[in-house]
Every structure is written in structure tokens, then in C-alpha cells.
Amino acid sequence: MRETQEELDLDVRQCIYSPIARLTPHEHQTSAFMWVYLIKSNDVPAYNTDDFFESYWLTPDEFFAKIEQGDKAKGDLFPILRAIKDLL
């Protein structure tokens, strides 16, 4: 909840959210053990400009295509989206 507030200026306590996946380094090649949540909100996140210089919405397939074209992304995004793609 704290990270979501810091990174997206979104108070999860005011949203509907649910866990959709639990990822592990050994099974999913992530850098840590992670829970992935689906957050439903009518508010557009206000990305922390100290941490992000650009943002845009992509489907998982659009994300994978950008990575294949050479775009850079945080290392854990690829295994996270690969693990949850069919759940979205």
C-alpha cells in the first residue's frame, strides 16, 4: 500500500483490489518474492515524476513487442507480465 501511494499517488484503501499472483525467484525468475494485485480505480494514477520520466498504457502483448524491438524496461516487468498475462 505504501509503495502504491509513493509511486502512483493512489490510496489503495480507497480502491477495490485483489491478489492475482504470487511470484517466486525460482519459479518466475523475479528478483524477489512478489504478490501481484489487480487494482480497480476510476482515478488515473499520478506517477511520481522523481521515479518515472515517461508513462503510457500498454497491453501485455504491446509490452512484449516493445521489448522485442529493443525498448528497455525494469527487469522484473517481463517475468511478471509473462506470469499474469492470461489473468488480465
Structure characterization notes:
- The chain is an alpha+beta fold.
- The chain has a single domain (2-87), classed as Nucleoside Triphosphate Pyrophosphohydrolase.
- It contains 4 helices and 2 strands; from the N terminus they run H-E-H-E-H-H.
- It has helices spanning 2-8, 25-28, 60-68, 77-84; strands spanning 16-23, 34-40.
- Strands 1-2 form a two-stranded antiparallel ribbon.
- The longest helix has 9 residues, at 60-68.
- The model has no long low-confidence stretch (mean pLDDT 89).
The helix content is 25-40%
Outline the biggest β-sheet.
Answer: 2 strands, antiparallel
Low-confidence segments, ≥5 residues, pLDDT <50?
Answer: none
Proportion in β-strands: 15-25%
* Number of H/I helices: 4
Could you give me the name of the CATH homologous superfamily? Nucleoside Triphosphate Pyrophosphohydrolase
**β-strand number:** 2
Count of all domains: 1
The general outline is globular
